Amino acid sequence: MGIFMLTHLILWNIPSIAMHLRLSANWMFLDKHLANYQYMAQEYSIADMAIYPWYGWLVLGKLYVGDDYDAKTFLQTDNYQNIVRWAQLIAQRPAVQKAENLILSSI
Questions:
Q1: Of 14, 52, 74, 88, which one's alpha carbon is 20 to 30 angstroms from that of 58?
Q2: How far is CA 76 from CA 16, 59, 61, 84, in A?
């Protein structure tokens, strides 16, 4: 077994490293796309609405934050300036602000 294959097996079998590597590829792709577009589909669309609660909240530090864990820091999302810009742009939309401020009651 070559060193590349051995390294690959080790890295992909350590959950936190595997997750980081997989997500980094997604982040790079999304950041590159948003370098050329203001929104996912050139104008605000369902595509932005669908991914903002995950990508947007992560880069804005609103998701997966705990006493001993911070996904924004772990994933180094500040390195993806185009995603940060996109998330800030969407977060300023009145409908998004209204939705984020909703208090949901249990059923």
A1: 14
A2: 14, 9, 11, 11
Decide: 40 and 83 in contact? Cβ < 8 Å: no
Structure tokens at 18: 């595997």
CB 17 within 8 A of CB 24: no
In whole angstroms, give the CA distance from residue 60 to residue 70.
Answer: 11
CB 56 within 8 A of CB 86: yes
Q: pTM for this one?
A: 0.74
Q: How far is residue 43 from each of residues 38, 46, 75, measured CA to CA in Å?
A: 7, 10, 27
> What does the DSSP assignment read for 53-86?
IIIIHHHTT-SSB-SS-BHHHHTTGGG-HHHHHH
Which one-letter amino acid corresponds to residue 58?
L
**Which segment, 35-39, 69-73, 100-104, is predicted with the most confidence on average?**
35-39
